[in-house]
Amino acid sequence: MLFLVSMLLTAPVQAHDGHPQMVLQSWDKTLIAPQAGTRFAAIVEAVDEDPIHLEVLDGDTWKTTKEIFRIRNRALLQTDLSEAANEVEVRSKDQARITYMEWDLVVPVYEEKGPPRPPTPGVLPQELVDFGVVSRSDWGAQPTLCTATEDNWYRMAIHHTAGHQDTNGSIEEQVRWLQAYFIGTGEYCDIAYQFLVGADGSIWEGRPYDYYSGATGGGQNDGNMAISFMGCYDSTECVGVGPHQPTQTMLKKVHEFIYTVSQLEEITTDSDHIKGHDDWPGNNTACPGDYIEAQIPNWFVPPGPDWAATLIDSSFALSEEAPIVLKTGETLEGYFEFENTGRSTWTSNTTLAPLPMDEVSPVQGDDWINGARVTTAEQNPATGGTSRFSFSIKGNAPGVYYQEFSLLEENTMWFNEDGGTEPAEIILRIVVDDEVVPADSGDSAAVDTSDFGREEIEDIGACACASSTPRSQGWIALIGLTGLVLTRRKQKS
C-alpha cells in the first residue's frame, strides 16, 4: 500500500546537535504507516528531471535515500532502517521542486526467486494476445526475478493498486512504475498481479502468466490468478488519491476478459471461485474497493447483451444471390434460423418483427401475427441454442421493397436496442411485378434478374418502378436485424 504524503513544508528545524539546519527542511508531520517496516520506499515526482535529495531519520541519524529507478521526473527512492518502525520523519532541501510523494514502510520478504532472466517467449496464451492484452515485452518489463511457476489456474482474485491510474498521463509508465516498486522494495520478485487494468479498459500482462501469484495472501495464492485495477476504487479508504470511479468501458472489458480467461482455464464463474481480495479467507483489506466489489457478481455470467441473436440460416435467397421475384398476390414461404447469442433464454414472447418499429410492412404475409409482428420463436433456446421463425412474404402491391427486421422480447426489449451492436446487412431484394418472371421458369421472355443491382431492378418496367416508398422509410427487404449481434455465418446448403 502506497501512501500520499502532504507536500506542505515547515520552516527549518533544529538539528539534533542543537545547531540550526540551514538547508534541509522537514514535512509538516511525521509519516505514520499502519504496519512497521525496516525499509522506507518512496516514489517522488519533481518539476524537473534533476536528482531529488530526500533524507529519513533513523534513530538519531539522518540517512540519505538512494535512487534505484527513474522515468523522466519521477524517481523511486529507498533506504533501510536499523530497526522496524511504523513512523518516520523525512526532510528535503528540494522541497520547492517536489510535487508529490508516495511512500511506504515495508519488510523485504523476497519471494522465491533466482537470477534475472528475460521473459519467456510465447508464455502469454495466444487467446489473450488475440484479446489485446499488452504483453510484458510490449511494455518493456524488466526481467522477472520469480522462479515459482503455476500450471493450474482454477480461481481469481480481484484487486486494485490503491494508487494512481497513470504516470504523467501514461498508463504504460504506471505499469513500469509498479514493477519497479514491487521489485525495488524487496517485497516481491515481480508485479504481484498477473494482469492490470488501465483506466481506458486496456489489459496489461503483469507477472508472467505461468508464474505463481504473489498478490492475495492469507495462504490464498495457489492457483489464484490476480487481476488488479490500476487506481483506488474505495469510497472511504482512498486518502490522498482518488477515489476513482470505474468506467463502463473498464467494466465491460474486464467482464469480457474474465470470461475469456475462465473459458481458457476452465474456471467456474461463481462466488466460490471469483472474489475480491478482501473476500478470500485470511485477508483483512479494503481491496479492491467497494466500487469494484459491487461489480464482481456481474462477471459470473457470459458478457454481452441479454437479448441478442445471430442469423445462421435462411431459406430466402439473400440479396447477394438473387432478388426475390413475386407476382401480385403471390406468397413465398420460408424461414430464418437464429442462434441465441444473448444471456437470456428466449420465451414464447420472443418475436420476429419488421422495422421501423411497430409500422405495417408492405410485404406482410397472411400468416403474420399482424402487420407489425411476423411470428414467434418455434423453440425457446438458452444461450447457444437455436430457433426457427417460419413465415411467408407476399407480393401485396407492385414495387421494389427492401424490408428490415429485428427480434424483440415483447414488453421487455427490442434486440436492436440492447448492446449497441452494429447491424449486418443481410438483404432480401423483393420485386413484385406481373411482367417480371424468374429466369428458370421456362418462359422464353423471362428477364433474368439474378445479377441485377438495385437500380437495374428498378429499371425493369413501369410496374417495378411503381413503388414510391423511399428506402429511407424502411421498406427494406432485408433481414438486417439491426443490433442483433448479426454476424452472419455462411448460409447452410
Summarize the structure.
This protein has 493 residues and is mainly beta. Helices cover 10% and strands 30% of the residues.
Query: What's the number of helices?
Result: 6
CATH superfamily of the largest domain: Peptidoglycan recognition protein-like
Biggest sheet character: 7 strands, mixed
Overall radius of gyration: 32 Å
Shape: elongated
* Overall pLDDT metric: 80
Please tell me the CATH architecture of the largest domain by its name: 3-Layer(aba) Sandwich
Counted beta strands: 26
Tell me roughly what share of residues is in helical segments.
10-25%
Strand composition percent: 25-35%
At CATH level 3, the topology of the largest domain is Lysozyme-like
Distance between the termini: 61 Å
CATH class of the largest domain: Alpha Beta
Task: Give the total of domains.
Answer: 3
Which stretches are poorly predicted, pLDDT < 50 over at least 5 residues?
1-25, 420-424, 449-493
Structural class: mainly beta
Attribute tags:
single chain, 493 residues, mainly beta, Jelly Rolls, Lysozyme-like, Immunoglobulin-like, 3 domains, seven-stranded mixed sheet, 30% strand, disordered N terminus
Secondary-structure map:
Layout: E1 3-5, E2 25-26, E3 31-46, E4 55-58, E5 61-64, E6 66-71, E7 74-88, E8 90-92, E9 98-106, E10 113-117, H1 126-131, H2 136-139, E11 144-146, E12 155-160, H3 171-184, E13 195-197, E14 203-205, E15 224-229, H4 248-265, E16 274-276, H5 290-293, E17 309-314, E18 324-326, E19 331-340, E20 350-355, E21 375-376, E22 386-394, E23 399-409, E24 413-414, E25 429-432, H6 454-458, E26 476-477
